[in-house]
Amino acid sequence: MRSVKLTPTRFSAGGYAVDSEFLYALLSTTQTRRPKVIFNCLRGVKTVSILYWSLRYGLLSWLNTVPTVSWEEFTNAIETLKNAGRIVENDDDQLLIVDDGQSQVELVTQLYPENLRERASEVHQRQLIETTLLAIQATSQQSYQAMQYFPLSVTEQARKQVRRWFRQPQQQPLSQAITNWLQTLSAADAQLFVSQLVGHEHPGLTFTQLASQLDQPEWQLRLRQAANWMSLVNFAEQLPPQDGLHALIKPQLHDRLSKSVRDTLAGVLQGYSREAISSRRRLKFSTVSEHLLTAAILLPMEDFPYQKCLTQTDIKSLLASEPANIDDWDFNQQEAVTDYFTFRLVQIWETKNGR
């Protein structure tokens, strides 16, 4: 892939934003929510505490969906809502909606459906967008035999990946695969995606330009485009490994659980105790417990061995001694169990059972 080394064009489809209207949809009229939890969930932080409270808030599907949001931007959105009298903040800095926010929740879910945003935690999003856009630009220019052009401004890692990809034989041209995928979208979403592509004599539009052109708020367009990218990931995964689009996108994907968490979980499935896994893997006992709690939160219920980690006595004891609202449980104030791992795992179990 040859090109003149000139000042690169902008990265037209990159960047994220958290608008106050979007943030509003992540809050509740009945459950006070900590802004730091929501912020770190959007950024993809996977501590047990952030994951657990994201689960309790019903926001786990938003994990890593806005990885580049800044705290300043996030708090500005909060202040906008507070100044408008739409949310209140209690003494513990937790937020609560003071009017009916259901319609906003429905709008956000329509713009970025849950089944698509759940993929975000398994995707290196910036790398996905950079490599795909650069590959599309290079392919477009090559088709017109235009070998001198302004390349997109992307990371060197993205450039190297595209160079390697460009040298590989492809079972189906990238342009054909993208065309086939676009046909699975609505006409509006397909046009939105295409509008930001950079290619031969096509500079690509920014979200600000599109918002003016389409008369739709920029934050809504960003959510729609994020959904488009996850849809493209799903489409590419179904293609043969030799397909150009599959080969381009596959390196940007990763497992929902880290290898270390998977290894710890495998040990439990093989019948080892947490103590034995800690010894065998030379990990702190607390680290093994954190691995298992992470897996319990992120995996479907049927994929985690609760029966190997919990007893019915543990569950019944806590349910009998703690408040009905799981959010009000306090490990330091309870006497039913002595192990924090058991305490938190029961909370996860009960949450996933609809409490």
Detailed description of the structure:
54% of the residues lie in helices and 2% in strands. The chain is mainly α and 355 residues long. It folds into 3 domains: 26-100, Arc Repressor Mutant, subunit A; 125-252, no CATH class; 259-352, no CATH class. Strands 1-2 form a two-stranded antiparallel ribbon. A hairpin with a 5-residue loop joins strand 1 (87-89) and strand 2. The termini are far apart. 35% of the residues are buried.
Main β sheet profile: 2 strands, antiparallel
Helix content: 40-55%
How many structural domains can be distinguished in the coordinates?
A: 3
Please state the average pLDDT score: 89
Beta strand %? under 5%
Uncertain spans: 1-15
How many runs of DSSP E, i.e. beta strands?
A: 2
**Shape estimate:** globular
Number of helices: 19
Cα separation of the termini: 55 Å
What would a concise description of this structure say?
54% of the residues lie in helices and 2% in strands.
Write a concise keyword list for the protein shown above.
globular; disordered N terminus; Arc Repressor Mutant, subunit A; 54% helix; 3 domains
Topology, pairings included?
Layout: H1 20-24, H2 35-43, H3 48-56, H4 71-83, E1 87-89, E2 95-97, H5 102-111, H6 114-117, H7 125-143, H8 156-167, H9 174-182, H10 187-195, H11 207-214, H12 218-237, H13 244-249, H14 259-269, H15 274-281, H16 285-298, H17 306-309, H18 312-321, H19 340-352
Antiparallel strand pairs: 1-2
